[in-house]
Amino acid sequence: MKFSLSDDQIEFGKVAGQAFAKRSGLEYARGALDDSDLPFPTGEPWASLGVMELLADESRGGGGTVLDLVVVAEQSGKHLTPARLVSFAGRAVTLLEALGSPEAVTLLEAGLNGGRTVAVADSTRDSADRLRLDPSGAVHGRTAPVLDGVAATDLIVLAETDTGPVVVAVEVTSSSPAVRRVDPKPLDATRGLAVFEFRGAAAHVLSAGASVVPAWDRAKNVALVLLAAEDLGAATQANELARAYALTRQSFNRQIGSFQAVKHALVEAYVGEEQLRSLVWLAAWSADAQPESLRLYAASAAAYAADVLNRSAQTLIHTHGGVGFTWEHDAHLYWRRAQVDKELLGSAGSHRRTVASLNLDLELTP
Amino acid sequence: MDISDSPEESTFRVTVRQFIEDNLHSLVSSRGASADNVDTLKHAQSVLYSGGLVGVTWPKEYGGAGGTVVQQLIINEELDRAQAPRLIGWMGVGLCGPAIITHGTGEQKSRYLTNILTGEEIWCQLFSEPGAGSDLAAVATKAVPTEDGWVLRGQKVWNTGAHWSDYGVALARTGSPEDRHRGLTAFVVDMSAPGVTVRPLREMTGHAAFNEVFLEDVELPANAVLGEVGQGWAVALTMLMNERFVVGGDGSTYGAGPGALTSEVRKALPQLSESSRELVLQEYAACWIEALACRMTGNRLISRVSQGGEPGPEGSVGKLALGALLKRVGSLGLSLQGETAVFAAAPDGTNHWQNVAMFAPGLSLAGGTPEVMKNILGERILGLPPEPRVTASPALTTSPTASRDGA
Asked: Which UniProt keywords apply (chain B) (predicted)?
């Protein structure tokens, strides 16, 4: 048993962290709150790290593991960088590689070389609006909020047909009246969330048949692991900011970190962070080495991550007192991230339901 | 990262599983330690020792196998799997033995260590006192030098297994109370020595696992000192760190593993309303996930230690989380029993969840309260400033609970 990162992974994380620090999402998040027309950042100073293609086939410059990408995602989460790791590097790349059709590979390569900006969309939870492909090859329905959707040129969706689900790609940049993008003012601008409505939008089939659902599920679970990893990074950073302030700020002639009331809250946040790190690494390991456990461990990590980041962001605000509640301080940017992330790719409650039903059905024990 | 067994670990696991299976009869003939089955449990430990399953991490020269902590984890997992009871000598093997290896004289090592492993002699910890629990530096038991040794006077409490122990490691004051932890010395106490009285304390579970120990002019030879005179705190720290490792990091879940919870949930679901069902599933999943996190954080610690690190304050993470989890699991398990939850046992005579719920508060307190664990983590890992120390004054030394060190 070796339950720790390799030296290479630790080094990779450091280098990635430095690259993300150069384009921290904090500044953009703050700017977007005041100016809702601020363009979503797309230039990627970290492109040379080989991050986006990490999960692609070796022939496309990939050959990395989900755990490698988790190490990077922890860093993007730390800086709240809109790095498209969850939506593209994790989910779209995994999905398109698994589908493997010429159409899928063409889109994947266009996404990797920067020609297209690809994101993956889920159906809305409302059954009346579910995504459907009609016999003429057009898509109807409404998506759930799409991660990095505001910058997408192409969306991959799982659409229902009379003969079973198919995976299709829809161009969303055209001014076609069949595609409507709704992007209301976001709670956390760094997620680039948008909702799409399709009324007969032209679609290209990427793959159909029995294998599309397992491929779709695996890609979504990989995305969940990466989302949890970004939450881990954000929680770690929130805890560090709170700790640093508790060492600096004096009250009653003492550093506030010496008060048990403050110290113990910081420790509880830290314990959550350490427990979450174990779950994220376990889930990433299962994605790479034990795929049959991925669904259970990804749901476990994602549900736990939602709670941990929520608590860490809350502790960050609380430790700062009134200062932490102001517009100027960064604390609310972490709080925003926490509120939004717990609703992405399924709610924390839905992930707990998955964990419960898998265990009750399969009688697994942790 | 590879969380699964290496080929060597896998071979080791097969050997361990086979040995347990071959000897299962003598191992599970008695579940749970009580004063009535000490001999059975001692025999079980000697059987396990003969298979190399006790003290696997101890150096070979002291009767161990010079193995890895991962091997110890595998042994624990396989014993859990077989539902074998915990070693009756776990305190000697996990806490006292390592302290003797680190701080003991050659004579002490050759006299005690092998018998600790075989289960021939059982050891306990004589640390806490009515006025010195989590604040261990407030120990008041006195050791007074005599011509050829020492005399011990005082009272100890919360001493797990003292009523079936042959030896204990006692912490006693050899300096002045103002010296706090600098005036302490550790002693090996023969529990059958004149003046040692052990009185079992009944816990809220209804069982008695720990005790009060009265030390009335107990005469000890000079070679009973463990470590140096005045250096008892170092011995205590070795034992406490190992205790937190054993309690929070060795993969044991003390009934918090939701295995039993799963069948309870499955049984209860059909009788519940839809809204109750949702609440139960959410809480069940939350417990399951937290238990998984506890086990994996323990495994991470063990993996780190196996690569050359020492068990450190990180053990407190596991102890904190596990203590909180067991209360939550016990509470859910009990609530699933419906009306039966208010009775000491179900109509069929089983009382598993009643026991878990009643045992849970104890696990939080054992080895230091959650607040003390949080101080340790806050100060040693997060680097936060300590609580202000109260200056020792005559008025305060008579009331040790008024001062705080964070033992």
From this structure: FAD, Flavoprotein, Oxidoreductase
* The pLDDT of residue A364: 42
Give dist(CA B126, CA B211) in Å, integer: 10
Q: What average pLDDT score do residues B340-355 get?
A: 87
Amino acid at B1: M
CB atoms within 10 A of CB A184: 10
Positions in chain A whose pLDDT score sits under 50: 363-366
What is the percent of chain B where pLDDT is above 70? 89
pLDDT, average across residues B94-102: 95
- In degrees rounded to 5, what are phi and psi of residue B381? -100, -45
Helices (H) and strands (E) in chain B, counts: 14, 8
Per-residue model confidence as pLDDT tens digits over B234-267: 999 988 877 766 665 555 566 666 677 888 899 8
CB A94 within 8 A of CB A222: yes
Residue type, B393: S
d(CA A294, CA B272): 30
Two structure tokens written together for A8: 């290479």
What is the β-pairing status of strands A138-142 and A132-133?
antiparallel
Which residues sit opposite A157 in a β-bridge? A121, A168
Rounded CA gap, A123 and A141, in Å? 8
Alpha helices in A182-211 (DSSP H): none
Whether residue B303 and residue A285 make contact (CB cut-off 8 A), yes or no, is no
Whether B317 sits inside 8 A of A274 (CB atoms) is yes
pLDDT tens readout for residues B34-87: 667 889 899 999 999 999 999 998 999 999 999 888 898 899 888 877 878 778
Higher pLDDT, B205 or B149: B149
DSSP class of residue B333? H
Mean of pLDDT values over B161-169: 96
A159, amino acid identity? A
A7 touches chain B (CB under 8 A): no
| Cβ-nearest to B289 among A260, A303, A353 | A303
DSSP B378: I
Q: What confidence category does residue B32 fall into, taking pLDDT thresholds of 50, 70 and 90? A: low
Write out the E strands in A209-359.
250-251, 254-255
Q: Which one of the listed residues B78, B121, B129, B243 is annotated catalytic?
A: B243
d(CA A220, CA A216) in angstroms, rounded, equals 6
Of how many residues is chain B composed?
Answer: 407
CA distance A49 to chain B (A): 21
Quick check: B264 contacting A, CB < 8 Å? no
Q: Give B391's pLDDT tier (boundaries 50, 70, 90).
A: low
CB of A225 closer than 8 Å to CB of A117: no
Tell me the nearest-neighbour CA distance from A112 into chain B, angstroms: 28
What is the number of other CB atoms lying within 10 angstroms of the CB of residue A79?
23
Considering just the CA atoms, what is the radius of gyration of chain B in Å? 22
Give yes or no for a contact between A223 and A90, defined as CB atoms under 8 angstroms apart.
yes
Task: Count CA atoms within 13 Å of residue B277 on its CB side.
Answer: 12
Q: How far is B4 from chain A (nearest CA, A)?
A: 6
How many Å apart are CA A111 and CA A101, to the nearest integer? Answer: 15
- ipTM attached to this prediction: 0.95
Quick one: pLDDT at residue B79? 85
B368: left (phi over 0), alpha (psi -120 to 50) or beta: left
pLDDT tens column, B260-286: 788 889 989 999 999 999 999 999 999
Q: Does residue B21 carry a catalytic annotation?
A: no
What string of DSSP letters covers B43-93?
HHHHHHHHTT-SSTTS-GGGTS----HHHHHHHHHHHHHTTPPPPTTHHII
* Cα–Cα nearest to B74, from B31, B18, B3, B10: B10
- CA separation for the pair B340, B200 (Å, rounded): 30
Query: Which is nearest to B161 in space by CA: B324, B250, B41?
Result: B41
